[in-house]
Amino acid sequence: MLEACIFATILCGFFGIILKKNLVMKIISMDVMSTGVIAYYVLIASRKGEALFTPIVSNVEDGIVSNIENGAYSDPVPQAVILTAIVIGFSIQALMLVGVMKLARDHPTLESGEIEKHNTP
């Protein structure tokens, strides 16, 4: 059920990018789709029914460092990838909004069809 909700979020964002004519709405739709992709990645990266530990070394005995025996460790790589994706998505969104602000100075509307009419030779 959770996967269906995540896919619905991704599809809503995708169809918003295609169908919306307002540039700000396209940016918001892209953000919705990005959030769905990140949620799906988190869903795939998680394991069901297991107690996960952080991958920290423990049990220091006689100068020998050993890990906890028979422990299921959470992988820190997906967490780092997701954090990076969130930061990159935020910066891309900010850059696109700056571009829309510059377009808004030159054109009285943010509808993509109207802007294309004024800029076609």
Short description:
The chain has 121 residues and is mainly alpha-helical.
Structure description:
By secondary structure, this protein is mostly helical. 66% of the residues lie in helices and 9% in strands. The chain has four helices and four strands, in the order H-H-E-E-E-E-H-H. It has a two-stranded parallel ribbon. Strands 2-3 form a two-stranded antiparallel ribbon. Helix 1 runs antiparallel to helix 2 (23-45) and helix 2 (23-45) packs antiparallel against helix 3 (76-106). The radius of gyration is 22 Å and the shape is elongated. The mean pLDDT is 82.
> What are the segments in which pLDDT stays under 50 over at least 5 consecutive residues?
none
Shape designation: elongated
Main sheet overview? 2 strands, parallel
Q: How far is it from the N-terminal to the C-terminal residue, by CA?
A: 50 Å
Structural class of the secondary elements?
Answer: mainly alpha
> Strands of the biggest beta sheet: in what spatial order?
1-4
From the structure above, extract its key features.
mainly alpha, two-stranded antiparallel sheet, 121 residues, 4 strands, two-stranded parallel ribbon, elongated
Task: Describe the secondary structure blueprint for this structure.
Blueprint: H1 2-19, H2 23-45, E1 52-53, E2 58-61, E3 64-66, E4 72-73, H3 76-106, H4 112-119
Parallel strand pairs: 1-4
Antiparallel strand pairs: 2-3
